[in-house]
Amino acid sequence: MSSQDIPEENLPAERAAHEHGRGAVSVADERHPFADPGLPPHEHRIQDVDERAAKRSERTVALLFTVSMLATIGFIASYVAIPVEKIVYVFPIGHINALNFALGLTLGVALFAIGAGAVHWARTLMSDVEVADERHPIEASPETRAKVHADFKQGAKESGIGRRKLIRNTMLGALTLVPLTGVVLLRDLGPLPGTSLRHTLWAKGKRLVNMNTNLPLRPEDVAVGSLTFAMPDGLKEADENFQTEIAKAALMIVRLEPRDIKDKRELDWGHEGIIAFSKICTHVGCPISLYEQQTHHALCPCHQSTFDLSDGARVIFGPAGHALPQLRIGVDSEGYLQALGDFEEPVGPAFWERG
């Protein structure tokens, strides 16, 4: 602002010296070529002189904070009530996901209302008196620190936060509710697993399907010393949940001479030397794909965990923590291999750390 923009009556040296204190220069000279014009007189707002106007502003600010709280509640209600696949037409945007539109709208209103309420509060009710202060060294003196504390207390007093309880309470309510939007969005990290990690698609009567041919397996399809991979009948690669389900249900089928099977339960749970173990390594979940026919050892290619398929698939080498789960199998009335139930223990890696 130039001196031409300020009425002359606001430029006397006495006013400048009074308002700016020590160091104020009201008249230019050789040492101080720029004069200090001083501050224009403070103009009071209507809220400063009319308590009814101040009350109206207070109610406006409180209304904005209340709108923010209602919008936050609307955000949570939308998240719970609106199906994720619902599509609506909104002019002029067009067809849009209803949930995304509702979440964006309510969160935007909640944040805008808090900001608008704070701005309106500052512009109409907080003190707007101009204060000029001298520059000071970076290191604060005890006097400066005391002044800062005093200014802070004075500012808090002038803000009216202690006296105007309606604004204070609604502001605190709005600021308390808004973070709940972030907490609710944590739900999008995925559905809670529940007991899904403890179960697979295998069930009594479910046929074993060759993963390469997609045909049900008969005992004669599995030769001694061979390795076959199987999945539950009815599971298709085109299914939306195929990867999730196959990661738990993939089977490794081998056929041994019954006399070579050391573990009695393993022999009882198989059929004529055909045994089915989970293909998922119990270390970090890699698919086991290497089989040593002479030793009956299955080797995980990721970290070389080695399992003895002739002795309950126990770990004989590597970082895996426990044996491969075995699936109990038999033959149905049509001569196809079938499961006689689900795995009796969870498949995959580090289950006991997962809960």
From TrEMBL:
Its main location: membrane. Belongs to the Rieske iron-sulfur protein family. The chain crosses the membrane at residues 61-82, 102-122, 166-186. It comes from Streptomyces kebangsaanensis. Residues 1-26 are annotated as: Disordered. It is a multi-pass membrane protein. Iron-sulfur subunit of the cytochrome bc1 complex, an essential component of the respiratory electron transport chain required for ATP synthesis. The bc1 complex catalyzes the oxidation of menaquinol and the reduction of cytochrome c in the respiratory chain. The bc1 complex operates through a Q-cycle mechanism that couples electron transfer to generation of the proton gradient that drives ATP synthesis. Keywords: 2Fe-2S, Cell membrane, Disulfide bond, Electron transport, Iron, Iron-sulfur, Membrane, Metal-binding, Oxidoreductase, Respiratory chain, Transmembrane, Transmembrane helix, Transport. It comes from the Bacteria. This is Cytochrome bc1 complex Rieske iron-sulfur subunit. PROSITE patterns: RIESKE. It holds the Pfam family Rieske. InterPro entries: QcrA_N, Rieske_2Fe-2S, Rieske_2Fe-2S_sf, Rieske_Fe-S_prot. Gene3D superfamilies: Rieske [2Fe-2S] iron-sulphur domain. Signal peptide: none annotated. Residues 15-26 have a biased composition (Basic and acidic residues).
